[in-house]
Amino acid sequence: MAAAQAGGGASLASWGRACLRAVFAGPIALIVSILILLAMPLWFPVGIGGIDHLVMPVVTFPLTWAVLFFHACLDRRLLRVVLVSLILGAVNFALIVEKFSGAPAS
Amino acid sequence: MFSWPQRETKVLVAIHGWSGVILGLLLYAVVLTGTIAVLDREIGRWSTGQGPTANPFDQPISEVVEKLSKKVGRAYREDVSLSINAAGNLVAFFHKHIRRVDGRLSDRGMAFEVDPATGEILNRREGFFVELRKEDRSSALSRFFIDTHVRLYLPHPWGLLLTGVLGFAMLVASISGLFMHRHLVTDIFTLRSGRNFLLNARDRHTVAATWGLPFSFLLAFTGTFFSFAGSFALPALAMVAFGGNQMEAIKVLFGTEQLRPGPRIKTGDLDRIIADARARTGSPPRSMSIEHYGRQNVRVTTEHVPAAGELQSQTLIYEGVSGEYLRHKPGLGTTPSFGSAVVSVIASLHFGNFAGIVSKAVWVALGVASTYVILSGLQLWLRRRDESPGWRAYEKLFDIVAFGLPLSLAASAIGFFMFFGTEHVIFWTPGAFAVSAIAITLLGLLLDQRQFAGTMWASLTLALLSLPVVRMAAGGSNWWQALMDGQTSVVGIDLLLTVIGCLAALKAYRQFNTASRLGYSASEPLTKRPM
User: Fold this and answer.
1) Residue A16 pLDDT exceeds 60
2) Are B82 and B70 part of one and the same domain?
3) Looking at the predicted complex, does its ipTM rise above 0.90?
4) Are B312 and B444 contained in the same domain?
């Protein structure tokens, strides 16, 4: 009975981890990619033509999204997936907020 | 080649399969119409080919443009765009830039369609550019194929967002397909013989997918870029980088000079500018634009196909009164840059137009291979699960879409020719597609799988073989006239349709013949039937 309960608990935990991984591979990977896209013009070099900071975020967007998606699916350590996504999301979100709050971006 | 632990390999296989199963049918629609859209100019000439196709920019147009300018109100003389439509006629669009009710910037003005040989005005329409483009009868067919490919005929921005997601799904399937191979090099050449249907199908899918992998990755990446750039990325970046000032963003990105119009003065000789641009680039312009027509500070921009051996298209800027050459302009920005070069290369690789008809032919062949990979992958997935009622329902949908799309595209071309030259062609080109799609769906639901497949192959044969006849009956050139007029694309596309029609006839014959010989019924699992 106890073994069955333990087995059920482990299966529930495994199902929860799979759901969390799916959330980070799906909507969270997309949201973080969009945040990186939006914040990139604030730090990417403008270039001699003055447009690289506008063009390259769009060019790299599909690749960024793909990297985050595959990382969330393949990394065995779910905690690392969560941390990478949250840190990237938070840093880029902070850059955008800083831009709109009027403070000079460093 | 790639040695992943068992868990990761299983995850990659699951990603590869599910990305295809969830979005594969829509992806099939985008890839098939994209393969056709590679030949958009050729299809435009084929669908309207009624006479010699002299390039309008090889004819004297300076006087024509000046005469047309006197027929429009002063407000519309701000800028002029000159382009060539599918019928090979010159289209001169005199316009001004205004903000629409929805806040978007747009060009509004008067468009003239002119016979380049005689200068006769064939048609004139007033309105917004995006709406006038939809009303162009001659390009209704090629535009329908392109709109289906670019946005699946859905309204802006939803269609672009959807095709962007589909491009991403293709990217994911390509990457997972690459990494899940344990023996990539041997897989490229492995086609095992024998009577194991699943094994043979898997081998064919793997060989086609592996050879086409770089192309699939390239198309998925560049297609995702274009879809997302047009739907949300550029407006969102304008919001962040320019505080929402879209005009400023456009000015920086497209390198518009924003010169103030000076006093009235006659614009210089456009024909001299075209001759000079031709000498510098080796090709006539494919389009031109004139900013501040009839004023000082007039700027003339000519756009050309990429030079031989190059991937980037060429844009030249001239001072419009004196006709003096000023500079080459990059595709984006005002000076050559890394970003502009990257986008130009992405565009050339996506459209396959960097080496004329040769690169287009290669792109069409690789597009057909990608279409096969999508369909064979889905078929493989379904055959492994055909005992499950849910997957058998999906299989029904698969059959309807797989057969229905090419047949309905052929029906749209028949609709175009039936109403060619009338205002109804705008409605009936997509309309014929819709009617055909509804009829095929009903047939798919009513007939068993064997009857449906046979009927579809036979219908496709009929539709494809009848298209050249219908085209000629609608007033198009016959092959002899077309060759005399130098319209090789008319004969080429007719021959291509005939060859594909004959292959479809062969498939129809085999379908009916094999079915009657083996006598299997629709209720049998697919794995027991021949492929």
Assistant:
1) yes
2) yes
3) no
4) no
SS3 (DSSP) at B394: helix
B393 and B513 assigned to the same domain: yes
Q: Are residues B359 and B397 in the same domain?
A: yes
Question: What is the number of domains present in chain B?
Answer: 2
Beta strand B287-291 with B79-84 is: antiparallel
pLDDT higher than threshold 60 for residue B521: no
Q: Is residue B480 part of a domain?
A: yes
Our count of domains for chain A comes to 1
- The residue of chain A with its CA nearest to that of B174 is A66
A51 touches chain B (CB under 8 A): yes
Model confidence over B23-65: pLDDT tens digits? 999 999 999 999 999 999 899 889 987 655 678 898 899 999 9
CB contact under 8 A, A41 and B337: no
Q: Residue B94: which H helix or E strand, with range?
A: strand B90-99
CB-CB under 8 Å, A56 with B240: no
Average pLDDT for B182-205:
75
Pair B384, B517 in one domain:
yes
Domain that holds residue B61: 53-116+256-331
Q: Does any CB of chain B come closer than 8 Å to the CB of residue A21?
A: no
How far does the CA of residue A87 sit from the closest CA of chain B (Å)?
Answer: 21
Domain assignment present for B75? yes
Residues 154-173 of B with CB under 8 A from A: 167-168, 171-172
Which residues of chain B from 51 to 80 reach within 8 Å of chain A, CB to CB? none
Question: Which is more confidently placed, A64 or B311?
Answer: A64
With tokens 């292959």, the residue in question is B503
Place of tokens 């959330």: A23
Residue where the block lists tokens 């027509």: B293
How far does CA B143 lie from the centroid of its chain? 8
Position B28 in a domain: yes
B289: β partners:
B81, B301
